[in-house]
C-alpha cells in the first residue's frame, strides 16, 4: 500500500466520521428544538391561567433566602442590593456574602444600609472558609438584609456560607450584578408549590442586558446590544435557553441551572454537600450531584425550568473576556462530566445517565475539540496537497446554512414566546448577526474551548475575572 | 440564460455526495428564508391585530359604561351592538374579557346587570360552548368565564371536570365551584380523586376568601379524610375561617402518621391560639421531627397560659443549636427575658451565645 493510498483511506474515514458526527449533532438540535416547541406551547397555555399576584397575598407561599456572593463589586453593590430588597415577594431575606473583596464593597454596604455586626449563630451545614462577621441593619427598613463578611474562598464557598446563614427552606442563588425581573421569585417558587413530585431546583431564562437601560435597579428599556460580541450572545442564549434547556427540562433531563439565578431546595443541597469549590463549574456540578443523590436514594424528584425571562446579566464585550469565560465554562463542564463519569451510560441514573450525560459529553464537551482537530487535519491535508476543496466548500455551506437556520429558529422562538425585542430593527440586527456569527464569532469560542481543555489537562484552576462596565443608567 | 445552463452543467458534473450536501444546504437556506418571512409577516399581522384589539377595547368599555349608566337604554341597542361589533369569535372574546374585568370590580345591582348583558349578547353561549371543546385550555377558559359571570345554572356541568387528569382544568373547575356554590361550597372535597397541590390549595383559599357564602361548611368534617392534602387544606381553612369548634379534632390529628399533616396542625393550633392543646403538644414533642419541634416551640408561648418554663429549660439542654434558639425565643415570649439576660451576662455560661443571639432585636 502506497502512502498516497493510506492518506486517501484516512481522509475517507475522516469524512465518514465527520458526516456521522454532523448528522448526530444536527439531529439532536432538531429533536431538542421540536421538544422545546411542544414544551413552550404547553407552558404558555398553562401559564395563561396563572395569576402570580395570588402568591404575593398568600400565607401558603414558601419563604425564600436569596443568596448573592459579591467580590470587588464596589461599582454597583449598593444599587444592586437595593434592587434585591424591592423584589415582589412577601417572605424573603437577602443574604449578601462579601467574599473577601479587595475593594471597599463591605464599607459601602455598611454605610449605605447602616449595618452593625451581630452575634449571629451560624449553622455549619457545609464546611466553609472562616466568617469574619455577620451584619444586620440598624434601620428596620432593611430588616430583610443580612451581610456576611468572610475570607476569600471563591464563589462556591461564598454560596455555601449563604446556605449556612439562611433560615428558609428555599434558597435562590444569584449573581449580585444581575438585574432580576420584579416577579422573578414568584415565578421560581411556583413549581415548588404545584408538583406532586419533590422539586429540588428551578431555573429560569437569563437574558443579556448589555445596552439595555436600568433605572432604580430595574430594567426599563430592552435594546439589542451595540457590540457584535454581546449581540451574538443574545442569539446563543436564545438557543441555549429557549431551544435547549426547555427541551431537557421537559424530558426531565436538565443538568444545568445557570449560576446567575436559580432556586433550590435547601435540604437537598445540604444533603448533597453544598457547592463544590474544587470546580469552576460549581452550578452544573451541584445540580448533577443533587440529581445523582436523588437517583441513588430512589426519591422521585423534578428540576423545573421557567422559560420566562427572569434575570438580566451583562455579557462579555471584548474577545479576551469572552475567551476567558468560555475557557472556564469548558473546564467546568469537563470537570463535572469527569467527576460524575460513573453516571454516564448507567441505566441506574435513568434518562440522565442514558441520554443527557452522553449527549453532553459528545455534543457539548467534544464538539469544539472535534471541530478544531478536524480543521487541523484538513489543513495538514491541504498543505500536503490532498485536500478536496470541492468537498470543503460544500461542507462549509452545509454547516453555515444549518447554523443560520438554527439561529433564525431561535429568533422565531423568541418572537412567538416573549418578544422582548419589540422593534423590527432589533430583530433585523439579530438576523444580521446570525449571518456573521459562524464566520467571525464561532471560531473564537471553539479556540477558547480547546484552550479550556488544555488548561484542564495542565491543571490550570483560574476563574478568569469578568470585567464589567455596568449597565446603562437612565439619565446618564 | 447561457450562464444559467453553465451553472446547471457544473451542478450536474458534481460528485454525488457533494451534490447531496449542496441540496441539503440549499434547503436549509430556503427554510431560513421562510422563517425570516414568517417573522416579518407575523410582526405585521400582530401590529394590525393589536390596533384592532385596542379599538375594540375602547368600543367595549364605552358600550358597557353606557349600558350601566344610560337610563334610556333599550334592548335594540344591545342587539345592534351584537350584530355590528361582535361578529367574530375574537371580537366576542375581547369584549368578554373587558366585561369580566368590569364585573370583577363591581358588586350589587350593576354586577347583576352585567350578568344579564352577558346573556343578552350571546356571550353565555360563547362561553358554554367552550366546555364541549376537545382542547383542555378552551374548556378551562370557558369554566373560568362562566364562574366569573356567576352562571350558577352550570354548576353541575362544571362539576364533571373535577376528576379530569389535567391539573389546570381540574383547578379551574374547583375554583369555579367555590365561586358558584354559595349554599354548599366545598362539597367537592368528598369527590376528589387526586390530591390537592399547594398551588390548588392557594387558589381555593383565595377564591374562598373573596366568596360571599350563604352557609360556610364546618371544615372539621374533612379532617379525617384519607387524602392527606385534603386534611392539610381543611386545616388551613379552619384557620382562615376561624372555626374554633374544630380545635378538639385538630388535637386528635396530632397523632396523624404524616409529619406534614402534624406540622400543619401545630401551625393551626398556634394561629387559633388553642390553649387546650398545650399538654398534647408537650406530649408529642420528644418523638416529633426537628421541624415540628421548632413549630411546637413557636406555638407554645402563643397558646399557653400555663408555666412552661421548665419545658423550655429542658429543651435548652438539647444539643441542637436551632432547638436551643427556638426554646430561648419561647422563653422570651413567656416572660423569661431576665432569665436569659442573666445567661447572656455570664460569659462562662454554655448558652451565653444563644442568649446573646435571641436577645439581639436586629436578628
Automatic annotation (TrEMBL), chain A:
Transmembrane segments: 13-39, 351-384, 390-413
Top-rank lineage group of the source organism: Bacteria
GO terms assigned for molecular function: glycosyltransferase activity
Pfam families on file: Glycos_transf_2
Species assigned in the record: Pontibacter silvestris
Protein's UniProt name: Glycosyltransferase family 2 protein
SUPFAM superfamilies hit by this protein: Nucleotide-diphospho-sugar transferases
Keyword DNA repair: no
Coiled coil spans: none
EC top class named in words: transferase
Domain Glycosyltransferase 2-like: 65-208
CDD domains cross-referenced by the UniProt entry: CESA_like
Keywords from the UniProt entry: Glycosyltransferase, Membrane, Transferase, Transmembrane, Transmembrane helix
EC nos: 2.4.-.-
Family: Belongs to the glycosyltransferase 2 family.
Family annotation (InterPro entries): Glyco_trans_2-like, Nucleotide-diphossugar_trans
UniProtKB/TrEMBL annotation, chain B:
Protein name in the entry: HEAT repeat domain-containing protein
Pfam family, one: HEAT
Residue stretches spanning the membrane: 20-44
InterPro entries per UniProt: ARM-like, ARM-type_fold, Armadillo, HEAT
Organism superkingdom: Bacteria
Keyword tags: Membrane, Repeat, Transmembrane, Transmembrane helix
